[in-house]
Design goal:
The chain is α/β, with parallel strands linked by helices. Helix content is about 40%, strand content about 20%.
Length: about 425
């Protein structure tokens, strides 16, 4: 079995037994399942929706709450190598055999109710069941897509956090950022508290108008002007927020916004001392959000950004870095890969295209056709070719940027780990 085939078995194990990309908007199915399993909103829930930054913000909220001493169940998506990455308690992933067991419990609920859940709904229900039987103090849920019909909205929430909204998943959510904002803010429950991260003006107006119409008890809008970035490089990021100095090992000028959004979200419910903030920020690791891995002299950066706003954020970071960069890229068919490649060409003249082994993935030949006019050097590589390229670069003081899809970053991490293991 090839490395790619091994990875495919890991990311979609047999016990999940349903289509990996089977998207079925709607809350009726999961609500019936949760009701049959007696799963209710009986503890605080932070739900995070948005286009970019929601995974980082969810992770940071979880770490802050954990460092306050609470037991925290966290559900995130997507995963890169194992679906167990999505379900955590106190930052510890569920074990594969435990995940298999709770999937069986949800599957029995499907049989008893006659309901068939989608892949994402199944994992959401499994996560909520795992948090229930482990009696966590509170729950942090990252929405998969949208908000109004996302499975993570099935129980409602105590605090809804809206991170940066841009253009993505247009076939399901709408063609404009304002329309997409409507779908995301519609997740808000009656009497929920709302936190809004900095947004483009038209999106901000839509979100605040909706909140006013719903007469929510608390609406907290993050003021970007209160954040002053002092340092932003491969060593990390430092910034001031309301005269508090915060240093983090996370990379990218957008992470201070995510950190501040998380701080203010937690402070809506709990006392959060500055020393806990600084302690948490200093030891954060968020997979494939400008995640750096050093191999000898080579620096490999993994970033799952796949929409234009995310790629722009990646490019802003790398324009400050004076090192040779090779871009490794792949894309799903529904992404604007032409615009993404144009942005990435401002960082490097060297591009490697990897074709992902999914029907939903864009063909490598189409990606290379879009790239050949804007990159000086571009070629398609299979996984064996990528492995050889990485090994050749181990002793170089260069950067390999792997971006365009979380599935690409996951596959490349798996392949690079296999190199290290040999």
């Amino acid at each position: 079995m090839s490395k790619t085939e091994n990875w495919l078995k890991l990311i979609n194990p047999d016990y999940l037994n349903r289509g990996f990309f089977n998207i079925k908007p709607g809350l009726s199915r999961i609500k019936i399942i949760l009701s049959s399993m007696n799963i209710k909103r009986d503890r605080p829930i932070f739900q995070i929706v948005g286009t970019n930054g929601k995974g980082s913000t969810a992770c940071i909220i979880s770490r802050l709450l954990g460092n306050l001493g609470y037991s925290v169940g966290t559900f995130m998506s997507p995963h890169e190598i194992s679906p167990a990455e999505r379900i955590l308690i106190n930052n510890r992933q569920i074990k594969a055999d435990q995940l298999n067991e709770i999937i069986s419990v949800v599957s029995r609920a499907e049989v008893s109710t006659g309901i068939v859940l989608s892949y994402f709904e199944l994992l959401t229900a499994a996560a909520l069941y795992w948090f229930k039987i482990n009696n966590v103090d509170l729950i942090v849920l990252e929405a998969g897509m949208g908000g109004r019909w996302d499975a993570s909205s099935a129980l409602g929430q105590t605090v809804l956090v809206v991170t940066s909204i841009g253009i993505d998943h247009t076939d399901y959510l709408g063609k404009t950022a304002v329309k997409i904002a409507e779908e995301k803010i519609a997740a808000v429950s009656e009497n929920s508290k709302l936190v809004i991260a900095p947004q483009r003006p038209d999106v901000y107006r839509k979100l605040t108008a909706y909140a006013e119409k719903r007469t929510l008890p608390i609406v907290k809008c993050i003021d970007k002007k209160l954040i002053k970035i002092l340092e932003d490089n491969l060593s990390g990021t430092s910034f001031l927020y309301k005269n508090m100095l915060i240093k983090t090992n996370l990379l990218g000028e957008y992470q201070p916004i995510n950190i501040v959004t998380a701080i203010e979200s937690v402070r809506l419910l709990y006392d959060l001392p500055d020393d806990i903030v600084r302690k948490t920020a200093g030891f954060l690791r968020i997979p494939s959000r400008l995640e750096a891995q050093k191999v000898n002299n080579l620096t490999i950066i993994f970033d799952g950004g796949h929409n234009q706003d995310a790629i722009e954020g990646v490019c802003r970071f790398f324009k400050k870095i004076k090192k040779r960069i090779t871009v490794v890229y792949s894309s799903m068919k529904d992404k604007d890969y032409q615009s993404n490649l144009c942005l990435l060409s401002t960082l490097s003249d060297s591009l490697l295209i990897v074709e992902l082994p999914f029907e939903r993935a864009e063909k490598a030949i189409n990606l290379i056709d879009a790239a050949k006019e804007i990159f000086k050097y571009s070629r398609i590589v299979d996984i064996a070719g990528l492995s050889e390229f990485v090994k050749l670069k181990y002793d170089s003081d260069e950067i390999i940027l792997i971006t365009g899809s979380f599935y690409l970053t996951g596959l490349c991490k798996y392949v690079i780990k296999m190199i290290d293991d040999t």
